[in-house]
Amino acid sequence: MDPKCQSMKLNDGHFIPVLGFGTYAHPKVPKSEVGEATKLAIEAGFRHIDSAYYYNNEEEIGLAIRSKIADGIVKREDIFYTSKLWGTFHQPQLVRPALERSLKKLQLDYVDLYLIHSPVSMKPAEEMLPTDEHGKLIFDTVDLCATWEAMEKCKDAGLAKSIGVSNFNRRQLEMILNKPGLRYKPVCNQVECHPYLNQSKLLDFCKSKDIVLVAYCALGSQRENQWMDPSFPVLLSDPVLCAMAEKHKRTPALIALRYQLQRGVVVLAKSFNEKHIRENLQVFEFQLSSEDMKVLDGLNRNFRYIDPKSLAGHPNYPYSDEY
């Protein structure tokens, strides 16, 4: 089955491919590796590429996309590219310049989707994580509704085809949805989502508002000390997931990805390994039964791999609410 045809309609009329290629890499990974992996992903059939200003790799990804356009493998309109507004640029006057900075790095005219990366605002600064003399993050208080209005203007200007949010909880989504004079609803909310954190309540809420849930960390997480404890469980070694993979003669990663697609979730798959990149596209070749889906639902333990505690002091820290 051609993955290019597998897409979901967003509430603004645009379409998002349901399987995306994630590009976040540990700072120690050479940038060239991210670019090469993006080229491999496009050659293999991925058309949805997810990145962010914070990932510090948009030059390499832009180069990879443009090289595959030059090779005649894709046209610009075949690619669905997502970027994200970092927390130091939440002040309304900084939103468009931040997007323009990403576009300059990418050497593209527009992004298909621009997201507010997180509801936590930080002090405007050149460094990604501005800290005080004690090494504590310096926060900012910004009205996210004003940030959203600046996002709407980016859509009006054609710099972003669609706009959405990431890491928002229900309350924060409602704040945008109930904003007086709202012109565009967020098309999606990109959040951590996998069988150990299936986000069922947030998913139901998003569906009720015609907002697509996009899952990152869908295969568990890269085991990075910066964000997580090395003693955390390895999702892809889960015995239930492994037994189901054996039953379907697929990899545990494919079971985890297929689970999301059948719930109506757009899923990001991140691997820089060519074999795994190609393998992940097999997600369209099989189906899980409703019994399988129930078993996978049963793995939920509201377990978060990515929970930056350094953000917990901010009033918009999203994970204090149930969902």
TrEMBL record:
Organism domain of life: Eukaryota
InterPro entries the UniProt entry points to: AKR (IPR020471), AKR1C (IPR044482), Aldo/ket_reductase_CS (IPR018170), NAD(P)_OxRdtase_dom_sf (IPR036812), NADP_OxRdtase_dom (IPR023210)
Keywords, ordered alphabetically: NADP, Oxidoreductase
S-adenosyl-L-methionine listed as a keyword: no
Pfam families per UniProt: Aldo_ket_red (PF00248)
Domain NADP-dependent oxidoreductase: 19-300
Gene3D superfamilies linked to this entry: NADP-dependent oxidoreductase domain
Family listed: Belongs to the aldo/keto reductase family.
PANTHER family linked to this entry: ALDO/KETO REDUCTASE
Protein name: Aldo-keto reductase family 1 member C3 homolog
Species of provenance: Galeopterus variegatus
